[in-house]
């Protein structure tokens, strides 16, 4: 099985230096790209059917094709890699950023050439100190070799790349909030439309991509669209960095064919459930995704299959809910996170999430009332898609609405018995 | 008053910015790196350097979890309280930390050695429960390991 994204990653060791990376075949794709017309690279990425690995799964080539042509849009335009990986349960981009920083940078240069942007940023979450150090080293080396800077390898194409290290706030992962943060403003989301592709950083066309998405680009350039499609086990192309965390024997993240099933991930790669614990629920791709159940073990982890099962693949890093952890406490923890990280800009999110947390807290402490369940359901509707300024609140209520659907008895029992059944006192 | 060094470092950041205000986070970090936190006076000084109002800059500073608008200890412990760490031992770890240090969240020990803060997911779910001391990530952290870890930070 080919693992293009992680083949250079040596666990617990320093990543490859630029010289070692080149020896392993690195920066071939840049030379190849610079000899191509930018629009032909966009066509190739479209043909590869690469879908965005940030969670939404939007086809990357189509997104690139929406960047307005150089002739008709203000300059400079910007390319941003969104490495603000802050959603609970997500830890896949860290693997690539720390493990093979040169691959990310080569991906950025090729992508920036394809959409003809002269300035690029890596928006990195504050806590990824090791990734920051390693990326900075790789950037310095890339400038020395003229892979970055003016007139790259004599091609006439220039690119400036900088890291922006954030200061810790989940909302910055929302791309318009991220753009406000880069402008030095209070990072609340912007209204869409206009979309950043047309009017983003400093009012200019701005493309935002996930690090894992970008890491695929050099390999697609080197090996072609058909090769990329052949890597997967299902309809979506390529490999995917999947992860499993929670009460399994071997939590971790691995590069596997896209479409590996939920059960294979938990059993074969995660080493199965720890002794004495049974699988109760699965949050498939970060805290903002609906629960799946043990009956979904056969579901392939690709965008459409997980959607059909009633959730979203999201980041592809799944979290296990075991049978000895209180479901209400677990959901309370998730909602407390979203409530704390709400930017406060729009009313439903600012007011609704703390209300949800208060109700869940009361239920967990044995002070819940019968009507609390319908109140929670009402909140799930009020905070759903279309009612809020950005996707934070709709994402926040996904695990809650599916918990009310699948694990309703847990809520009812807390209310009926006036205590958490797991709490002996 | 900003020191000459601080001013110089902030001005160096401005070379990469379309507007001075774009360097707000970088500038606040320059101050925090040297003084440990960002005082009202520093907000005023940085704001004037960046052509921002103090309210505008404070709106940015107070928005972020790790721009400190109150003094912190020599070392900052950020313990991950998100769903994976929570279900794998966050609570006993927090209780032990709070008991041993004698402080709650947002507080600093009397000897000014540690400040304890809650943290959103640290992106180390495969190493839960996780915590960050200054810039060092630890996980999985068991109660038995705490003393040794904290011993490294004087």
Keywords:
heterodimer, A: 425 residues, alpha/beta, Rossmann fold, Ubiquitin-like (UB roll), 3 domains, four-stranded parallel β-sheet, 17 helices, globular, B: alpha+beta, Arc Repressor Mutant, subunit A, Glutaredoxin, 2 domains, four-stranded mixed β-sheet, 7 helices
Protein architecture, described:
The complex is a heterodimer of chains A (425) and B (154). Chain A has 425 residues and is an alpha/beta fold. Chain A folds into three domains: 18-230, NADH-ubiquinone oxidoreductase 51kDa subunit (Rossmann fold, 3-Layer(aba) Sandwich); 239-322, Ubiquitin-like (UB roll), CATH 3.10.20; 327-417, de novo design (two linked rop proteins). Chain A is built from 17 helices and eight strands. In chain A, strands 3-2-1-4 form a four-stranded parallel β-sheet, with helices on both faces. Chain A has a four-stranded mixed β-sheet with strand order 6-5-8-7, sandwiched between helices. In chain A, helix 2 (28-34) runs parallel beside helix 6 (101-115), helix 5 packs across helix 7 (129-144) and helix 14 (347-364) packs antiparallel against helix 15 (372-382). The model of chain A has no long low-confidence stretch (mean pLDDT 96). By secondary structure, chain B is an alpha+beta fold. Chain B has two domains: 4-61, Arc Repressor Mutant, subunit A (Orthogonal Bundle), CATH 1.10.10; 75-151, Glutaredoxin. Helices cover 42% and strands 12% of the residues of chain B. Chain B has helices at 4-14, 24-35, 40-49, 54-61, 83-87, 90-101, 146-151; strands at 75-80, 114-119, 131-133, 136-138. In chain B, strands 2-1-3-4 form a four-stranded mixed β-sheet, with helices on one face. In chain B, a hairpin with a 2-residue loop joins strand 3 and strand 4 (136-138). In chain B, helix 3 (40-49) crosses helix 4. The radius of gyration of chain B is 18 Å and the shape is elongated. The two termini of chain B are 29 Å apart. The mean pLDDT of chain B is 96.
């Amino acid at each position: 099985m080919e693992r293009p994204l992680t083949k250079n990653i040596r666990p617990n060791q320093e990543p490859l230096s630029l010289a070692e990376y080149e020896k392993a075949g690195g920066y071939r794709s840049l030379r190849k790209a610079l000899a191509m017309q930018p629009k032909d690279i966009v066509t190739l990425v479209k043909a590869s059917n690469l879908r965005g690995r940030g969670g939404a799964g939007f086809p990357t080539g189509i997104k690139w094709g929406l960047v307005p042509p150089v002739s008709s849009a203000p300059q400079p335009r910007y390319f941003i890699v969104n490495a603000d990986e802050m959603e609970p349960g997500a830890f896949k981009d860290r693997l690539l950023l720390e493990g093979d920083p040169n691959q990310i940078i080569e991906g950025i240069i090729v992508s920036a050439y394809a959409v003809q942007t002269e300035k690029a940023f890596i928006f990195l979450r504050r806590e990824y100190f090791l990734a920051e150090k390693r990326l900075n080293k790789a950037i310095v080396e890339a400038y020395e070799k003229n892979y970055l800077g003016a007139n790259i390898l004599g091609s006439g194409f220039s690119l400036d790349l900088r890291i922006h290290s954030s200061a810790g706030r989940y909302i910055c992962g929302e791309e318009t909030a991220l753009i406000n943060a880069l402008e030095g403003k209070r990072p609340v989301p912007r209204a869409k439309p206009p979309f950043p592709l047309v009017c983003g950083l400093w009012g200019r066309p701005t493309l935002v991509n996930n690090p894992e998405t970008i890491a695929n680009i050099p390999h697609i350039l080197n090996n072609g669209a058909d090769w990329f499609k052949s890597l997967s086990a299902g309809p979506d192309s390529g490999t995917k960095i999947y992860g499993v965390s929670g009460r399994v024997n071997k939590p971790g993240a691995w590069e596997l064919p896209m479409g590996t099933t939920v059960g294979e991930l938990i059993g074969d790669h995660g080493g199965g459930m720890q002794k004495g614990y049974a699988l109760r629920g699965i949050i498939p791709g970060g805290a903002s995704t609906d629960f799946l159940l043990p009956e979904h073990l056969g579901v392939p982890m690709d965008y459409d299959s997980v959607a059909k099962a009633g959730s979203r693949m999201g980041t592809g890093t799944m979290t296990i809910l075991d049978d000895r952890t209180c479901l209400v406490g677990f959901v309370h923890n998730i909602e407390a996170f979203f409530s704390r990280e709400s930017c406060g800009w729009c009313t439903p999110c600012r007011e609704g999430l703390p209300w949800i947390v208060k109700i869940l807290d009361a239920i967990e402490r044995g002070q819940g009332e019968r009507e609390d369940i319908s109140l929670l359901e009402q909140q799930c509707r009020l905070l759903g898609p279309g009612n809020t300024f950005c996707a934070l609140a709709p994402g926040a209520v996904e695990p809650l609405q599916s918990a009310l659907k699948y694990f309703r008895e847990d809520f009812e029992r807390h209310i009926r018995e006036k205590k958490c059944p797991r709490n002996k006192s | 008053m900003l020191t000459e060094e601080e001013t110089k470092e902030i001005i160096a950041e401005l070379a990469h910015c379309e507007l001075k205000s774009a360097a707000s986070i970088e500038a606040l970090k320059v101050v925090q790196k040297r003084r440990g936190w960002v005082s009202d006076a520093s907000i005023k000084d940085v704001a004037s350097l960046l052509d921002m109002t103090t309210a505008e800059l404070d709106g940015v500073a107070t928005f972020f979890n790790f721009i400190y608008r109150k003094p912190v200890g020599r070392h900052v412990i950020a313990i991950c309280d998100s769903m994976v760490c929570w279900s794998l031992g966050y609570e006993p770890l927090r209780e032990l930390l709070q008991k041993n240090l004698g402080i709650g969240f947002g507080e600093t020990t009397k000897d000014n050695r540690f400040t304890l803060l809650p943290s959103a997911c640290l992106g180390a779910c495969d190493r839960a429960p996780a915590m960050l001391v200054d810039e060092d990530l630890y996980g999985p952290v068991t109660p038995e390991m705490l003393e040794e870890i904290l011993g490294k930070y004087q």
